[in-house]
Amino acid sequence: MQRILAAHLPGIEVVGLDDVPAYDEPVEDAPDFDGNALIKARAGFEATGLPTLADDSGLCVDALNGMPGVLSARWSGPPKSDERNNALLLAQLADVPDERRAAFFHCSVAFVDGPGVTGETVVPGRMRGRVIREVRGDGGFGYDVLFEADELPGRTTAELSREEKDAISHRGRALRALGPVVAARLA
Fold first, then answer.
1. Domain with 117 in it: what CATH number?
2. What's the gap between Cα 146 and its chain centre?
3. Tens digit of pLDDT for each residue in 69-80?
4. Residue 155 lies in domain
5. How many C-beta neighbours within 10 Å does residue 94 have?
6. 2-46: pLDDT as tens digits
7. Region for residue 142 given its phi and psi (left: phi exceeds 0; alpha: psi -120 to 50; beta: otherwise)
8. What is the pTM (predicted TM-score) of this model?
9. 3 state SS of 60
10. Residue 37 burial (C-beta neighbours within 10 Å; 0-12, 13-18, 19+)
């Protein structure tokens, strides 16, 4: 997130969680991505007093009625495991034909720079594609090894360079859309 923001918000110093005093990470218990992103951004703002960006994202598979969705990181149960999540996804889609394996990554990015809803903005981003049948690639994280984006077919998002992925990813799209809002509010 810092890499994408730095490119689109010149002159604004972006710090990450490692750069601020420790605080208890909030429980992500909202029923949707927007709500979870807001929970995290509000917690960051309350803990630091600094304008805060936070995101929540996941994979939504059409043939699974949008699952794993907001449960993406913990779909296979605790503790969180990308390997187990990917194995579960492959098992759930084992009998689903290739033409019905459409999916999308969704990312909601929340910006909080003051108390109450007037100090809050949430922007979505999506990347459409499909779930393939075998793990490929070693970049990225989560379901990247099983996802081919419509814009760059033939490679999983785990096989893309950072620049390629940033250009088409759900997170990159949301952050680029939010950039002008952040710049205007911090001006």
1. 3.90.950.10
2. 16
3. 999 999 999 999
4. 2-186
5. 8
6. 677 777 676 777 778 778 777 788 999 999 999 999 999 999 999
7. left
8. 0.92
9. strand
10. buried
Q: What is the pLDDT at residue 173?
A: 96
149 token code pair: 């984006």
Provide the pLDDT for residue 25: 87
pLDDT, one tens digit per residue, over 106-126 is 999 999 998 776 789 999 999
Number of domains in the chain: 1
Can you tell me which residue has the tokens 């034909």?
A: 97
3-class secondary structure, 172: helix
CA distance 49 to 2: 19
Among 22, 57, 19, 70, residue whose Cα is nearest residue 43: 22
Helix (H, G, I), strand (E, B) or coil at 44: helix
H or E element in which residue 102 lies: strand 102-112
pLDDT of residue 158: 98
Q: Alpha-carbon distance 182 to 67, whole Å? A: 31
The CA distance from 18 to 120, in Å, is 23
Q: Catalytic residue positions?
A: 56
Give Rg (Cα) of the chain.
17
- Count how many residues are written for the chain: 187
